[in-house]
Description:
Structural class: mainly alpha
Number of strands: 0
Number of helices: 4
Distance between the termini: 23 Å
Largest sheet: none
Amino acid sequence: xxxxALRGFVADKLDMAEAGMQERxxxxxxRKAGVSDEVVQEVLACLAHCDLQRFAPAKEGAGEEARFLxxxxxxxxxxxxxxxx
Length: 85
């Protein structure tokens, strides 16, 4: 659900369809929109973590989950700040 929310958020910001959007599309779209390398890498790292958890879930404690959700929230806030709309 976190990956879906983040992908949907980015797709909306980039005015792209979420369906079929690949990592390369996200990377290129965010960079063209003027988003810094640091923020792009943070978004991609969050999505990679989600994929890892989906296919090879590790036992994470509530504290680790909360830190990850805070990281995703921070990435979304930074995207919103830099991209507006």
